[in-house]
Amino acid sequence: METVAPLNASVRTEFGKGPSRRLRMVGSVPAIVYGKGETPLHVAVDAKELVEKLTTDYGKNARFRLAIAGEPEGPLVMLKDYQRDPLRRDIVHVDFIAIDPEHKFLVEVPLLLTGRARGTLAGGRLRQVRRTLKIRAAAADIPVAVEHDVTGLKVNAVSRVTEITPPPGVEIVYDANYTVAQVTMPRGVTALAEDDEA
């Protein structure tokens, strides 16, 4: 069994606005775990612990092993949806989805540009047009970010989504071959000669 950070949880037996409000008053968040062909499981999780786990590098794509009543072998889940209080912005309800190892999820991850674009050596400016990518992958293959090397990008050149090499097990999802990065010259600035051997 893979090692995934546990998230303490307890089974809920009372439902509705009143019980949910009482849970929030003691620092818990009502939640539901959905699984294919399974009856939804109603649980409560610690609000502070949940926020801490959602602010790791994986963000909303983090995986949790629910430790229900102290039992560490609970269901492996991902965040499906959540609601916040419109004024305080506290998380007030969470929907989890039980992870099927064979199922591929459609999620959004950060796009991280690496390398120094060749065009910037000639005075150009690198502009990142897209900061996130939609990908499809099994839960265990979802990366913190997808990296894209822009070292060869020259002045007035663009880099498109089809040029990105995804990590193993990851499919980048797109309908059009959109631009992810480009190098442009500041207005009034003449480009220096680019060294093709650089």
CATH H-level superfamily of the largest domain: Ribosomal Protein L25, Chain P
Biggest sheet features: 6 strands, mixed, barrel
> What structural class results from the helix and strand content?
mainly beta
Q: Work out the number of β strands.
A: 13
Characterization of the model:
With 198 residues, the protein is mainly beta. The chain folds into two domains: 6-98, Ribosomal Protein L25, Chain P (Beta Barrel), CATH 2.40.240; 104-184, RNA Polymerase Alpha Subunit, Chain A, domain 2, CATH 2.170.120. It has two helices and 13 strands. It has helices spanning 17-25, 47-54, and strands at residues 6-11, 28-34, 41-46, 63-68, 76-84, 91-98, 104-114, 125-128, 132-138, 146-149, 158-160, 171-172, 179-184. The strands form three sheets. Strands 1-3-2-6-5-4 form a six-stranded mixed beta barrel. A hairpin with a 7-residue loop joins β4 (63-68) and β5. The longest helix is centred in the first third of the chain and has 9 residues, at 17-25. The relative contact order is 0.15.
List keywords for this structure.
13 strands, Ribosomal Protein L25, Chain P, 198 residues, mainly beta, 2 helices, RNA Polymerase Alpha Subunit, Chain A, domain 2, 4-stranded mixed β-sheet, 6-stranded mixed β-barrel
Q: How are the secondary structure elements laid out?
A:
Elements: E1 6-11, H1 17-25, E2 28-34, E3 41-46, H2 47-54, E4 63-68, E5 76-84, E6 91-98, E7 104-114, E8 125-128, E9 132-138, E10 146-149, E11 158-160, E12 171-172, E13 179-184
